[in-house]
Structures are given as C-alpha cells and as structure tokens.
Amino acid sequence: MEPKPHSTYSEQIELLRDSGMLVDDEAAALALLRRVGYYTLSGYSYPFRFRDAVGVRTGRFYPGTSLPQVEALWAFDNRLRLATLGPLQHVETYLRALLGYKLGEVDPMVHRKRELLSLDRPSDYPKWIQKLDGQLRDSREEFIVHHREKRESVVPVWVAVDVLDWGGLSYLYTFAPLKVRDDIAATFELSAAQLKSWMRALNVVRNVCAHHSRLFNRHYSLTPKLPRLGQHPSLDAINEVKDSTFAMLTLLQHLASHTDGVNMRILPAVMSSFPATSGLETSATGAPAEWAQLELWRTP
Asked: pTM (2 decimals)?
C-alpha cells in the first residue's frame, strides 16, 4: 500500500474545510499547524466527527465545529499532562524510598536473592534483573559509578531502586515479600493487590504524559482494583468509569494525599479549566457531574 501523499499547510487547511470544519483565521490556523502538526490535532478533532448509523466516526465534522475549539482541547490536554507529572513524580519518589527501605530491612541484596522474594510471575524476574543490570552498567550517576568502581558493583537495594523507572518499581513491588507489600500498601490505606494494580495502571498514565500523547479522554485496558464501597467515597465515584482518565487521576490524588509535599490543588485547578468553549464537557474525561465536590478533588 502506498502512503498518503504529503500535503502542504495550505492543503491541510483545505482538507479541514472540506470536512466541514470552520477555519476563519487562516494565519492562526497556519501557525497552529506549524506548531502542533495536522496529525496531532486530528486526535483532538476526533470527538467532533459525525458517527454513522453503527456509531463509527466518519470524516465529517458536526456543523459549527471550529479549529479554535480543537486548539482549546489540545491546550487543556497540555496543562493536564504537566499537572499530572508533578504529583506522579512525588508519589514515585515516595514509593521508591519505601521500597528501598523496607526491602533493605529484609536483606541489603534481597533483590538478587530469589529465595527471599515472593514472585507472582517468576518468568518476569529474569527479564527485570537483566534490565536492572543494564541500567547499572550504563549509568553515569556518581553514586552508581562509586559502587561499580569502589564496591565491586555490589549495589544494595536502596541504591538500586534509584535507577528504576515507574515500571521497574512496579515489578519490584510485585517481587517483594508479602509483608513488605502489605506494609507499603497500608501506608496508602490500600491492600497489596490494590496498590499493585494501581502502580501498573499509573505506569501507563506516566508513559502517556512523558510521550506527550493525548490524555484527557483516553481509556485504559489496565484498570485498578478499588477498595470496597463506602471505604473511600471519592474512589466509589470512579467505580463505573475505572478505565477513564479521571479515574486514573483520582487514584493519583489518593496516593498524593498520603505523600508529603504534594500540592493537592494543581490537578483540581487544571480540571476546572476544562474549555467550555470546546463544545465538550468535563465528562469527556470520565468525571461525574459533581466531581469537584469529591473529597479528593475539593480545594480548601
């Protein structure tokens, strides 16, 4: 199959108009296409496309759809990604510190002693160790270089955790002895099974944010295990939309509420900035109508 032919910016503007989009300010449209790209913007224009008789989106836009509406969604999504990365970083740092400390209490080299671990899926462990070894070998961080050159590459677990990304930490948590998992999960008022599923789900969110992908209306195949109804009302509110972005951000707000140093106002403020002029509603994120009244989302 041959690829689609290249289109100039002017041709891209005409493609949008031919599909029914209003483009009144050509100079602004040209600047936006240069800055963002036609293909990236198409992801934000998708909700404005007609559905056919079986519910499939077509190439035609609803009447009145304008390019500024699409731009407003794109700008909101940029704000949302940035607001998500901050709390994620704080929570990730806390989880890393907890894992390093709790595992270190078991044995400084527990991560290399399979007999001390509780492996949910033993086949994952050799891959994880191989990746860790590569990170330790390639790292130029002074503390890793010190352990390579002065400590014969004997790297205790509280040092090793500092080269792991969120995904690597998630796996290490699933390898940890059951008591360590329970102790760490209890820090967040969760069970070990719940925290494990949250870490896996939020790893996807982190990757979406880090790669500048569309976030606000995404749906996720990895969904979290939630506490029983009535235990945390804010989490009850996402029970029916566990695959939505709002659900993932609510998980993050819950973890952040148990993590020192997180500004809990950032995400609510950005969610409140959802562009009414876009023609969509905050529910596009999966948020319920009264989301701002939920305990985890109320700002003092």
From this structure: 0.93
